[in-house]
Design goal:
The protein is an alpha+beta fold and 128 residues long. It has 1 helix and 7 strands; from the N terminus they run βββββββα. Strands 1, 2, 3, 4, 5, 6 and 7 form a 7-stranded antiparallel sheet that branches. The longest helix has 20 residues, at 108-127.
Length: 128
């Protein structure tokens, strides 16, 4: 006796079809748990982070403002803490007054640690 296998239709997903392609690789902090950092001498709360950059509320900044930032990223279940030190430059300020920054000088190891941080934070959120 033979069983007929159902044919599975597989459709390619065009990344251009998504409204925000970066969402899968970006961690969005809850309002209650936003880490803060210093940018040009002012304290700002992070909205989100990815290996490409981060976002925070505008506090009188302008496009192309840049600063070296230091951010403690507590990676869940990691044996050691990771301190991100990088040059962040504001590339865009949107209508909601959110500064979108890009990292200027990350090395490969820092990128991988941020990817790991984002993944572990997403997994922790899913478990909760």
């Amino acid at each position: 006796m033979f069983l007929k296998k159902k044919k599975i239709k597989i459709e390619a997903v065009n990344p251009g079809d998504r409204e925000d392609k970066r969402e899968a690789f970006r961690y969005i902090f809850s309002r209650e748990n936003r880490p803060s950092l210093s940018f040009l001498g002012k304290s700002v709360k992070l909205i989100n982070i990815s290996a490409g950059g981060l976002a925070f509320e505008n506090n009188g900044f302008s496009i192309d403002d840049q600063d070296r930032i230091h951010l403690n990223l507590d990676i869940p279940d990691a044996k050691k803490k990771f301190v991100l030190t990088a040059m962040a430059r504001i590339s865009h300020i949107d209508r909601e007054s959110i500064c979108r920054c890009i990292f200027e000088d990350l090395d490969r190891e820092q990128e991988e640690e941020i990817h790991r941080y984002v993944l572990e934070k997403q997994k922790k959120d899913l478990r909760n």
